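Practice problem: predict the structure.
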Amino acid sequence: MINKIKQLAESAFDEVVEIRRHIHKNPELSFKEYKTSAYIKSVLISWDISFTEDIADTGIVVLLEGNNPSFKTIALRADFDALPITEENDIDYCSANKGVMHACGHDAHTASMLGAVKILNSIKQEWEGSVKFIFQPAEEMLPGGAQQMIKEEVLENPKVEKMIGQHVFPDLEVGKVGFCSGKYMASTDELHITINGKGGHAALPEKYNNPLLAAAKLILDLESSFVKDKELPSVLAIGFIEGLGSTNVIPDKVKLKGTLRAMDEDFRATAHKRMQKIALEVAKCYGLEIDFDILKGYPSLVNDVALTESAIVFAKEYLGTENVIDLPIRMTAEDFAYYSHQVPSCFYRLGTRNEQKGIVHGLHTSRFNIDEQSLKIGMGLMAYLAIRN
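Answer:
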């Protein structure tokens, strides 16, 4: 079976590269992926593969049934939205949509999974169970497409028992994949803070209540509080401060923006309360008001231990032990996390780096690209993991 899937991946490679390049050249932002969705459907129609459409507006689901379809149902997921970044790569398939770019590899995710669809569809009589392919919009923007697809029962009819997701990884050289069992990626929350003081002439301190002082105190107290937490990995960072005063002008208010990342949902809830408490204490100390809004984002991503360990075994069978790497936890976030809280899931990384070709740039950067040989590995491994797990 391994040799057969590899041969089929080789045969489909040129077409999958063409698919990836088309999607890359025509990126669309989250919740606006209408042309991308139409293109994916056109590919499936050309292969005479049926699908369900309009899930979470632009989402698509393909259900392939092998022998004994009720034996098991496993789902694969690929996202297909892009980012608001202007591409700076000098390539034939550079983004034609100025200011929008597939800088996170979702084009590769979708192309790889379409390749897996083609492979498994061609050998339906040689594997058991059902495989559900979830083409998901809007991973990059809250509230995320995964949550909406779940609400629209994408994990039902038939009920998904296990789920696998694949993500490109420019830190890992092409030919390798990486796994992390258990807690893998962080939750993400946006912090939007407004400190309301009283502005005035800087030379007349008796007539103003400087919100900048409270902002400085709040930032330091928040930082100090989270530095003490060493047992559970977390990140609190304030990345934006706006006062709009001047050399002799004290502003009426200061705005702060930041993020909280956590690996544990109980800690996350406690942290929310702690931040609010610190804000209240600072407000009281300086005699002003602080509006502290927390925009709750994606939950932490937990890789099911049993499923991930079996996926590692099968990945080693498919690629060789030397090409399967253990990965550390990441404080970045992913809306695949929503699936991981519903069904046993495994989210792994596909190496795309090639230093000889200059393919070394990171995710979410204007020069991100992949070694397209990774597509061959991506589609084949997804297909193999789907029928072996």
